[in-house]
From TrEMBL:
<keyword id="KW-0143">Chaperone</keyword>
<dbReference type="Pfam" id="PF02613">
    <property type="entry name" value="Nitrate_red_del"/>
</dbReference>
<dbReference type="InterPro" id="IPR036411">
    <property type="entry name" value="TorD-like_sf"/>
</dbReference>
<protein>
    <submittedName>
        <fullName>Molecular chaperone TorD family protein</fullName>
    </submittedName>
</protein>
<dbReference type="InterPro" id="IPR020945">
    <property type="entry name" value="DMSO/NO3_reduct_chaperone"/>
</dbReference>
<dbReference type="InterPro" id="IPR050289">
    <property type="entry name" value="TorD/DmsD_chaperones"/>
</dbReference>
Amino acid sequence: MNPDLRLEEAIGTSGGADSLVLGVNDAGVDDVNGARADEYALLASLLLAAPDADFLSRLSRLQGDTETTLGLAHVALGKAAASAAPEAVRREYFELFIGVGRGELLPYASYYLTGFLNERPLARLRGDMKRLGLERAEGHFDPEDHLGTLCEIMSGFAGARFVVAAEDEQDFFERHIAPWAARFFADMENAASARFYRAVGALGRIFINIEAEGFAMEARRARDRR
């Protein structure tokens, strides 16, 4: 990941783990983890609600390193935001994630891993959240295995708002995100209802694959040090 790439301006106040109740840490965060926190926060914001006109305007100014796949995905998202009308994106979000009866996509770990909602992946997640001292905030009713919530948690880990050991962060990613998130984002890229969200799907798929590669590299280094 390019540590020079910062997304705070694009994310604005929309990012962050506002659906969770967690401890806050003021410890410094290096550039790479800051960029990871921003990326997860951006994805969480776009998965949990349709972007309003102000958010789309900020996203339209998003830039990236055109020599990397992630940077090109940022550029594509910026172009998609620049050409999108807020009302059209709101309707697109409804068709994708809510729908009449159900949306075209179900962004839940339980569904992607078992074919049903509220299954064992959700129970395992709740157990891990309790062990790590995380809990859902009042007023949020979506099951915790919603990918937007999982991205909020990862943003909190990377940005040191939620203090856990590096091994716990990697374990959380490998247990709750790696088995299905890239597949979900690929489905988003190809969803019939998706227009603006195709660019979100591409960004999410590329970023999750980078994260998986990064955690695998850390695991190999840890084994080599033993």
